[in-house]
Amino acid sequence: ALRVSSSVSIPLRYICLGVLVIQTSTNILTLRYSRTRRTPGEPVYLASTAVLCTEILKLLLSYAALLQTSNYDVFKVNKGIHSQLTENWKDGIKLAVPALMYVVQNNLLFLALSKLDAATYQVTYQLKILTTALFSVTMLGRRLNPLKWASLLILMVGVGIVQMPQGSAPVEKEGVSTSGKFVGIVAVLMACVSSGFSGVYFEKIIKGTPISMWMRNLQLAFFSIIIAIIGIIYNDLSTIMDSGFFQGYHTVTWVVICSQGVGGLIIGAVVKYADNILKGFATSISIVVSSLLSYYILDDFTPSLFFVIGSTFVLVSTYLYSLPA
Ligand code: C5P
């Protein structure tokens, strides 16, 4: 656990927070970069194949972690996995629900970052704090104090302000058109619902049963792989037949896949050892970090006054929400 004793709990929390901030910021920026910068005429890689590669990576990493925690007893690990798939299949199948939602959510993420700049995407995605709260109340029976409800209200106002158009005429930048922006926002809103539901569902499973986190991650990745393959067959089979599974892949695509895979497992650990609040905090801080990087490095984002005011609302609300009762 993170809180070993009061003296070491602070550094560990900060390390956890720091790792999440760096991971979230680099992940969003490399993903945005990978979707928008490419040689003219060349196809952009298929998001569905990248999602599948990410899940395969998570499966391998979870398996490696299981091996490590059992002192490399391959037989014992395989036996554990086998019994989860056979005798305990009724328990394991529960993971198919968040697996389906996360596969859809991760595909939506690629769509959203093809249409929105990294900063707008991140501020809007903070609405997942709201959906997480609503699902915690309805599914886990948690109660929120008035301050938490007030911060959720401030959060929604802040996200609303960020969406205000800049100036009287819509500003059309390359890769950020008005209609594209609408599609992007809808994708983020759907991802928020999925994120809130799956986060709470996963927390309920991980904290309610004695099965190890790595076994749960392995099960989650297993079902995700099956669902991702079905999705690819259904949506992208003819494109893959024409131009291949790895069409449009570059080094940066692999960086995105690795970052998504490792990031997903970090999130799993944060949900287990800490809570969703710490997770919300990390994404809030990374809004500032990635806005600055988006401005200085990607050069695809100029903060408007609305953006600055709205983001301030979002950051303040995250802080208020995290205050102890
Ligand atoms: O934004 P949000 O916190 O909902 O992000 C969840 C991300 O973490 C998804 O990409 C999901 O695939 C990943 N995840 C994971 N393993 C878990 C929990 C989440 O890979 N145990």
Report on this structure.
The chain is globular. Residues 168-172 have low confidence and may be disordered. Helices cover 78% and strands 0% of the residues. It contains 14 helices and no strands. It is mainly alpha-helical. Helix 2 (47-69) runs antiparallel to helix 10 and helix 7 runs parallel beside helix 9. The structure holds cytidine-5'-monophosphate. Cytidine-5'-monophosphate (C5P) binds next to helix 5, helix 9, helix 10 and helix 12.
What is the residue-averaged pLDDT? 87
Rounded radius of gyration (Å): 20 Å
Order of helices and strands: HHHHHHHHHHHHHH
Beta-sheet strand percentage?
A: under 5%
Spatial shape: globular
Terminus-to-terminus distance: 23 Å
The number of strands is 0
Ordered list of secondary-structure elements with their pairings:
Elements: H1 6-36, H2 47-69, H3 74-85, H4 89-92, H5 96-115, H6 118-125, H7 128-139, H8 146-162, H9 178-208, H10 213-235, H11 237-243, H12 251-273, H13 276-298, H14 305-322
Helix pairs in contact: 1-12, 1-13, 2-5, 2-10, 2-12, 5-9, 5-10, 6-13, 7-9, 8-14, 13-14
Bound molecules: cytidine-5'-monophosphate.
